[in-house]
Amino acid sequence: MGEAGRKKIVIDTDPGIDDAMAIFVALNSPEIEVIGLTTIYGNVYTTLATRNALHLLEIAERTDIPVAEGSHVTITKGTKLRIADFVHGADGLGNQNFPPPKGKPIDQSAAAFLVEQANLYPGKVTVVALGPLTNVALAIQLDPAFPKKIGQIVLLGGAFSVNGNVNPAAEANIFGDPDAADIVFTSGADILAVGINVTHQIVLTEADQNKLALSKGKYAQYLCKILGIYFSYHHEAYSTQAVYLHDPTALLAAVNPSLLTYTEGVVRVQTSGITRGLTIFDNTKKRYGEITEWSDKPTVKVAVTVDAPAIVELVMERLMNS
């Protein structure tokens, strides 16, 4: 596929073990061109997310890719962030204590970088959002035309008709900044939401991990060093000997949308109370009598089924042949 045929992708990320996996898969996906990483809090605080993003690009020998640091607070300036370091280790990458990266983030903020790229390549840029949606919401506030200029936003977030993973109501990325998520979902952009109702079907087993360990792949070798803590968390939380591949699934949905099937409707996010972070899907089949907060909102696509074996195979293949 020529340069022109490749999809331009910005990955908004909070690395994160499965973020690392998604970034490596992206860098080894010939269908796409990664034009930047933007960073956000979630698995770790934003400062560390930036450091980890720079570190991963150094491991991949792709320091030509810019990293733009994102917001340190929620869209409503909230500073009490939920950080999932108990899942990914205190450093976000399995407590390997890697040396600090030599690279630095660019001077632009993540939101400014997103707006600039959407203006440079109107309709051609896909944002793959793997953390809370603060940066994407800030880009919309910065440039109200952003939703129309961005090609697509593929976001990892929501729990559609299943329990959340932070609490029964909420999935972690939406829970991280529900106000930002609601802004994004109702912005009118071309949105594809990949929720944990789908990603919980994609598991990497211990046998898969052993296959990665035995392969010569540079990315596979690196990930085997950091996967241990991720396996122990899943064993503890879900009593399973496998890990969920949330981020790589969302990334591959951007690379090859035909790996999933989708339904279309309006999504709103609950921003307060015990269901804060809940994503509600309206299939728009019923005409309601009253004008409400749901009326005339733009629709989005929500993933409903996934070809799990195909996704695991792609992830394995792209990590091992690296």
TrEMBL record:
GO MF: inosine nucleosidase activity; protein heterodimerization activity; uridine nucleosidase activity
Keywords: Cytoplasm, Glycosidase, Hydrolase
Domain of life of the source: Eukaryota
Major localization class: cytoplasm
GO cellular component: a single term: cytosol
Location in the cell: Cytoplasm
E.C. no: 3.2.2.3
Gene Ontology biological process: purine nucleoside catabolic process; ribonucleoside catabolic process
Listed CDD domains: nuc_hydro_CaPnhB
Catalytic activity from the UniProt record: uridine + H2O = D-ribose + uracil
Domain Inosine/uridine-preferring nucleoside hydrolase: 9-311
Family: Belongs to the IUNH family.
Role description: Involved in pyrimidine breakdown.
Full protein name: uridine nucleosidase
Phylogenetic lineage: Eukaryota, Viridiplantae, Streptophyta, Embryophyta, Tracheophyta
